[in-house]
Amino acid sequence: MALMLDDYFRMKGIRRNVSITVAHWAPRPMAMFGPVISDPMTEWLSERNIEVVNGFRLARIDGGSRKLIGESGETVDYDLAIVAPPHRPHDFISQNPDIASPNGWLDSNIRDFRTSKFDDIYGIGDAIAPPSIGLGMAGVFAHFQADTVASLVAGDILGSYSPVPYNTVGLCAADTGGDAGWIAYCDFRKKLTVPNTPFPDCRSMGRNRLMKMAHAIYEKYFLANIYGAGTHEWRRRGKGREDTGEAL
Ligand SMILES: Cc1cc2nc3c(=O)[nH]c(=O)nc-3n(C[C@H](O)[C@H](O)[C@H](O)COP(=O)(O)OP(=O)(O)OC[C@H]3O[C@@H](n4cnc5c(N)ncnc54)[C@H](O)[C@@H]3O)c2cc1C
Question: What is the number of structural domains in the chain?
Answer without folding.
Answer: 3
